[in-house]
Write a structure and sequence with these properties.
The chain is of the alpha+beta class. Among the domains are: 42-51 and 221-303, Beta Barrel (Elongation Factor Tu (Ef-tu), domain 3), CATH 2.40.30; 61-85 and 190-218, OB fold (Dihydrolipoamide Acetyltransferase, E2P), CATH 2.40.50; 87-188. Helices cover 32% and strands 36% of the residues. The chain has three helices and 21 strands. The radius of gyration is 48 Å and the shape is elongated. The two termini are 61 Å apart. Residues 17-23 have low confidence and may be disordered.
Length: 383
C-alpha cells in the first residue's frame, strides 16, 4: 500500500503530461487548394421550341383535291403541298382571256377609225386650200368655199371623236388584262406551296374536305431555327449575355447534352414568376424534334482560370459579396475577410487566389476550432 501511495503522484503527473500534450499539440487542418477552370453557371428550365413556326392555308375557299404532304414530312421551298378543285376558276380565267381578246380587237377597230378620220381631214383640208384662190378669182362662189370649210370642221371633229374612242378602247383593254391577271392570281391561289425548307408539324384536314379562306391546313416549322426557351431566376440572370455557351438536356435524352448558345434574352420578364426568358440556339441539334418537350439548360456566364471554393460551412459573417473565411497565418488559425464570387450550382463560392495576403492560407478547420489555435497544415500540394 505504501508503494502504491508513492506511485500515485507519478501517475498523476504522467496523466497531466498526456492531457497537456493532447491539449497543446497543434491541430491538423486541411488547406483549401485552388481548382482550375471553374465555370460560373446558371440553371434554366423550359421547353423545346422553334423560332419559325407557320400555320399555312389557302387564301380562297374550295374543296381539297390533292394532298402531297403529311405529318413529319420534310419539304423544300416551293414544293406543292396541296391543291383545291380549280375547275370553276379555270373557266373564269378563260372568260377573262376572251374578254381581253375582244378588247384588243376593239382597240384595233378604234385605231383604224382614227386613221380614217385623219385621212379624211387631210383630204378635205387640201380641197379647201385649192378652193380659196379660186374664190378670189371669181371662178368659185363663196358658198362653195364655205361648204368646203364646214367639211373640214366636221372632219376635224370626227378625228377628235375617233381619238377618244381609241383612248376608251385602250382603257378597256387595260381593264380586261387586269381582270385576267386577277383571275390568274386567284387560280394560282388554288395551289399551296411550301414557304421555306420546312418540316410538317401537323396536317389539319383530309382529302375532299371543304377549306375556308385563310383556314390553316398545315403547321410547318423550320428545323434550322430550333431553340430551347428556358426561364432563369431574375436574381441569377444579371450576368446573362447573348452569345454565351450553354449545355442543353432534353427529358427524352437524359444521358446526353447538346451544345448551344444564348441567341436572345427577352426584354420583358415574367411578372408572376419573376423569371427572365432566354432563348438558346442549338449548335448540334437533336435528330428528333418534339415541340414543347421539357428542356434544362446550364448557361456558362464566365470561366475562372483558378479559384478557391468555399462552402457555407467554411465562411462566417457574410455581408453582401464578402465573408470571413478560416485561414492560417504564422501557424495559427485566423479569420480573414474575402470577396466571394457568384454562387456556383453546387452551392460553393469562388474566391480568387490573389485575394488573400502573402503567407495566409485558407483552410477547412475541424469542428470546435477557435481563432488563435496552433495548427499544422495538411495538404496534397501547393497551389
Amino acid at each position: 500500500m505504501k508503494r502504491a501511495w508513492f506511485a500515485l503522484p507519478a501517475l498523476l503527473v504522467a496523466l497531466g503530461l498526456v492531457i497537456a500534450w493532447k491539449l497543446l499539440r497543434p491541430v491538423e487542418v486541411a488547406a483549401l487548394l485552388p481548382e482550375k477552370d471553374v465555370r460560373i453557371q446558371v440553371y434554366g428550365l423550359g421547353t423545346l421550341e422553334v423560332h419559325t413556326l407557320s400555320r399555312i392555308g389557302f387564301k380562297v375557299p374550295g374543296t381539297l383535291a390533292k394532298l402531297n404532304a403529311d405529318h413529319g414530312d420534310r419539304v423544300r421551298k416551293g414544293d406543292i403541298l396541296a391543291r383545291l378543285d380549280a375547275a370553276e376558276q379555270e373557266s373564269r380565267v378563260a372568260k377573262a382571256a376572251a374578254s381581253a381578246e375582244r378588247s384588243r380587237a376593239a382597240l384595233v377597230v378604234a385605231r383604224a377609225g382614227r386613221e380614217r378620220a385623219r385621212v379624211t381631214l387631210t383630204h378635205r383640208e387640201k380641197l379647201l386650200q385649192r378652193r380659196l384662190p379660186m374664190v378670189q378669182s371669181g371662178a368659185v362662189s363663196m358658198e362653195d368655199a364655205d361648204e368646203k370649210r364646214n367639211a373640214v370642221d366636221v372632219a376635224r371633229a370626227e378625228l377628235a371623236l375617233a381619238e377618244g374612242e381609241v383612248v376608251s378602247a385602250e382603257a378597256a383593254l387595260k381593264d380586261a388584262l387586269a381582270q385576267l391577271e386577277i383571275e390568274r392570281v386567284l387560280l394560282s391561289e388554288h395551289v399551296l406551296e411550301a414557304p421555306y425548307d420546312a418540316e410538317v408539324v401537323a396536317r389539319h384536314k383530309e382529302l375532299g374536305s371543304v377549306q375556308t379562306a385563310n383556314e390553316p391546313l398545315f403547321t410547318v416549322m423550320d428545323p434550322a431555327t430550333l431553340w430551347a426557351r428556358v426561364h432563369v431566376d431574375e436574381a441569377l440572370a444579371g450576368g446573362l449575355r447573348v452569345g454565351q455557351s450553354a449545355e442543353i438536356r432534353l427529358r427524352s435524352a437524359p444521358g446526353r447534352s447538346f451544345r448551344g448558345r444564348v441567341a436572345r434574352i427577352d426584354i420583358e420578364s415574367d411578372r408572376v414568376s419573376e423569371e427572365r426568358r432566354v432563348h438558346l440556339a442549338f449548335e448540334d441539334p437533336p435528330d428528333q424534334v418534339h415541340l414543347g418537350e421539357q428542356a434544362e439548360a446550364l448557361i456558362t456566364l464566365a470561366t475562372l482560370d483558378q479559384a478557391i471554393l468555399l462552402s457555407d460551412a467554411d465562411i462566417r459573417q457574410r455581408e453582401g459579396a464578402s465573408a470571413l473565411a478560416w485561414g492560417v497565418e504564422d501557424g495559427r488559425l485566423c479569420l480573414h475577410r474575402v470577396s466571394l464570387g457568384p454562387r456556383l450550382l453546387d452551392g460553393r463560392y469562388p474566391v480568387a487566389t490573389g485575394d488573400a495576403p502573402p503567407g495566409l492560407r485558407l483552410v477547412k478547420p475541424p469542428p470546435g476550432a477557435k481563432v488563435g489555435d496552433q495548427v499544422v497544415l495538411v495538404e496534397g500540394g501547393r497551389p
